[in-house]
Amino acid sequence: MTLFDLGMYMAKSMWAFSYATASFVTLVLTGVAISGAATRNRSVNIVLCLLSNHLSELPLTIMFTDACFYTWLNVTGVFQESLLVRFFYYTNIITAIGLLYLFKRSLESREVGQKFLDQISKDRKKWIELPGLSSPRFWQQLLNPFHWPRDCTVYQNIPYWTQSEQLSAQKSDGWESVVDMALDIYRPNTVQGGDDRPVLFYIHGGGWTQGSKKLLSPLITEMISHEWVVVSIDYRLRTKAGYPTQLVDCKRALRWVKDEIRTFGGDPSRIIVAGDSAGGQMAAMISLTPNIAEYQPGFEVVDTTVQGCLGLSAVLNIVDLENYSHHDARARFIKDIAKRDGSPESAENLKFLTEHSPRFRIKEAGVPFMIVHGDIDTLTPVQHARDFVREYQISCTAPISYLEVPGGHHCFHVISSPRSWYVTIAAAEWLNYHFDASGRQNTQSIDNDGSQSGSIGGSATKRKLHVHDIVEWGWNT
């Protein structure tokens, strides 16, 4: 055997091994994506969730990649020479069936989202139809999983601290943490300073210790197209004091936005806070704890009320006494996030966890809520979202909408896919319904007699609802 022949043999063996490995991993992750299986190890769940989420949202892209790989192996003769490759070729047929099933599940989200939109359309008398297989927008979103806001001006890394807060943060956590106390503003090019457009105040997730304001979801792109001013914030991820430093930072950013956003065309009296995962928890806490001095040290007199909240795969119950999360979430939060001493089961720590679980602060709610959650989320259990919505319905007069997404994993909405865009369009219409394009807030609420009263732009209305104002599509209560 010549040196060239040896090199070719080694190269073909490498390709064969790579194909076998990729095929096996894809087969396993396809099974996880379909079943939503969870383990008792949070780290394993995170890895499985991140990887299976991509397969669930981009199944046709995975199939296309596999077809290209298989074609290459045919061209190079590896398929004909390798028994290993031929074996995994047949296992890939099973995987392909699973991926097609995942694609079908993503299309089911269209029906769920359309029912959600139909209810809003009845009230707005503006019918919205989600893009289907015949729509160019559907294929544009399917074939291009990457997105970036267009037709807007971005103002990056604007600090929101005061001088005393900067010095305090630098002393306790170092300069890198101070850099995290910044925000980005996305101003549509059609919006000018003083236009008073609604503001979407977005808080990224990442388990309170990771993530970045630069990781934009399709929701931000969509709201810019609706001429909303979008603010995406960072907060300190490495802090010695632990949580609720992150929540306090978010309120500091909100303080800055209320003072300065009119310069960028935003309306400080129409700020809707949104967030995903841990960011969803802080978004809900901001909505449920307006003007509470404990979470506003040094700016106790500042008004931190917001006009609405949108939670995406949000953490709504940190206590989790029912252990829906299947791992020791309480211990992790107390030890690693809040950095508190003592047992997570102690009365003091359970009280702390309860105080920071939106599920147990619902009675303080006074603004519209929308909760979006995937039905096979293995990191933030869907049952927590269901409990939150049910309790909100019982305890509050403010409207709440719930969109449970079939086949949705944790933070599925971060990836640009048909499912995420169906949810994004539905969420955008919900935002416009309550804070419409004319700049008038929908202040309707549910009366005790089941009728809906309030005003839109000053005109009084009172009518019977076609369905209850809570929208629970995809969830059999």
Automatic annotation (TrEMBL):
Report keywords, A-Z.
Hydrolase, Membrane, Transmembrane, Transmembrane helix
Question: Mind telling me which Gene3D superfamilies this protein's record contains?
Answer: alpha/beta hydrolase
The UniProt entry, under InterPro entries, shows: AB_hydrolase_fold (IPR029058), BD-FAE-like_dom (IPR049492), Carboxylesterase_B_AS (IPR019826), GDXG_lipolytic_enzyme (IPR050300)
TM ranges: 14-34, 84-103
List each copy of the BD-FAE-like domain by range: 183-389
Q: What GO molecular function terms would the record report? A: hydrolase activity
Task: Keyword check for Zinc-finger, yes or no.
Answer: no
Work out whether the entry's keyword set contains Hydrolase.
yes
| Entry protein name | BD-FAE-like domain-containing protein
**Organism name:** Entomortierella parvispora
